[in-house]
Amino acid sequence: MDLVDLLLSAVRRVPSVAGGACSETSWRRLEHVLRSMLDVESAHPEPSSGACCAPGALLLPSVLLSEALRSEVVAAVVDAGGPVDARRSLSLVDAQLLLLDAAQRAGLCATNDAAPLARATDVGTLIWVTGLSGAGKTTLAVMMLRHLRCRGRAPVHLDGDVLRTPVSGAPCYEQAERRRLAEQYGRLARMTAAFGHDVVCSTISMFEDVRTRNRHEAARYYEVFVDAPPSVRRKRDTKGVYAQPDGSTSGPVVGIDVTPELPARPDLVVRNVGTLETLDAYAALAIAAALG
Hints:
The termini are far apart. This protein has helices at 3-13, 15-18, 24-38, 61-64, 67-79, 92-105, 137-150, 160-168, 175-194, 208-217, 230-235, 276-291; strands at 126-131, 156-159, 199-202, 221-227, 268-271. The longest helix has 20 residues, at 175-194. The radius of gyration is 21 Å and the shape is globular. The chain is α/β, with parallel strands linked by helices. Helices cover 47% and strands 9% of the residues. It has two domains: 3-105, no CATH class; 126-291, Rossmann fold (3-Layer(aba) Sandwich), CATH 3.40.50.
């Protein structure tokens, strides 16, 4: 079983897809696109352009980005004789984005889910919240989510600390891995916004080229830089990033051991002085500006 077979078998096993009406021609088309993208030889001829699945059989973005599909990818790897910790041999987020991209190219992916995110618009807004560790990115992002929901929106929150483990398996803080993760977070955020969902992504990801790509490729993009003085960052350091019991850092720490590429032209600079009232005022200002 090669990678394409593995991915397709995982999609077929997701409960909401298993009982669907996608024809074999539709599955064959998806397989052909996947193999073309991965440059893997196909044993089947390309399906004709006229053969397509019925609208009701389209694969929904929420299915291709779901926890259920991640579980099925892991199960498929294990069934194929792969390691139990499948994340080390296959990036789950990469796999899901690949499937989503392939389904979109094959004309088999709905542009929006009808439910439960009925409030999603045709094009979502990507709000990229960046700053050093302890600056208050996640706190600000959660406040932004509340303001978005108060406006009747259905936002998606992507947080770097939450995404790191499922994307990379074991925590790794080498510069090359930091860049790879930043690029993946950006791609996931842009693609989710492209399917109509407002996205708030809170992440350090201190790479200017990643932010530039967001601005160029996202239809609606708003960048927030949370700037907090060292005293505030250390006070908010609940993860022990800046000081271990022996006085060392958990390093390499961006801003101490690693020189950060600070945002060159953020849309908003948040001066976090350590008060929630000030941070919430910034959150309201950011949402008003981002949504226009």
